[in-house]
Every structure is written in structure tokens, then in C-alpha cells.
Task: structure prediction
Amino acid sequence: MIYLQLFYEYFKVGLFSIGGGMATIPFLYDMANKTGWFTEAQVTDMLAVSESTPGPIGVNMATYVGFTTAGILGALVATVGLVLPSVIIVILVARALQQFRHNRYVEAAFYGLRPASTGLIAAAGVTVVLKSLIQMDLYRATGALADLFHWRAIALALVVLVFTNWVKATKNWHPIVFIGISALAGIVFHMAGV
Result:
């Protein structure tokens, strides 16, 4: 039963998340609330791990959730569920595109999809930033304004921003270097209890 549910949930995500892996994030937050397989806070962690591992973000996240929920078979089922709608749609579109390539309705549909996918990606980015830098639960619990912001995360984000944009010596470094350094900083912070 869990395999069918994994397939169904990720099939829906794959079918409706137009715009790539980041567009899956709003669907994952909804899935977290609906299924209880993971928490909203874990979505941010999954995103960080998925960004730092090879492969598409959405596929990595589906594989991770499937594995933690139902083992290796669960990882396979969730991944196939996510990818299958794209495969079906690409096959259908490839067959039909030659006939309707210059149809004004098809061109209008593609024109309309661009801002929709941009909006989904922007919403996902804003959500990830807010979940990473704002500690709303802690603030609600304590009422202290200092607890509203996740200061270590803000400091790390500012350091990465400076080194990727304004420090000439590091500006052209590959993003994986910054991902690795950030992961190492997170481990050090955690081990130091900071």
C-alpha cells in the first residue's frame, strides 16, 4: 500500500510541477503536511542534500523520501512516479509537435507556461529562504525578537554572497566548492553546539 501511495503522490508532483526541480518544493511542503513522511523543516534539509549531490533535485528528493519511507523499493517507486509523467508527456508532445509546431494556440500555451513556472520557482525560493533564515516557531515560543532570525544561517549566506560576487579571487570558483564549504561549516557549527 505504501508503494502505491508513494507512486501516486510523486506522479502528481511530476505531472504538475512545471519548471524543474525547484518547482517541486511547494508540492513537497503539501505532501509533508498531508502524509507525515517528513516535516516541512526536513524539506529544506533535503533540498540542501539534493543540491549538493549529482542529479536533478526533484529526482534526488523523490529517491530520498522513497528510501526513508519504504527502503530501496520505495526509492525506486517514488523516483519512477516522479519521472513517468515527464516521459509520457515528452513522448506525446514529440509526436504532436511536428503537426502543431506553428499553431497559435500551442505557442500561446507555451507562452503562458513560462510565467507560471517562473512563479513556482520564485515561490519555492522564497519559501526556502524563509525556512532557512527565519525561526518562526522559536519566535512564537519565546517571543524574543532575537530568536526570530537564524543568525548562523544569515551569516553563512552573507559570507557566501560576498565570496561568490565580490571577492575577485573566489568569484569564479565552482559552486560545488561553496556547497562543500557550507556543509563543512554546518557540521562544525553543529559539533560545536553553536
Remarks:
- The chain has a mean pLDDT of 88.
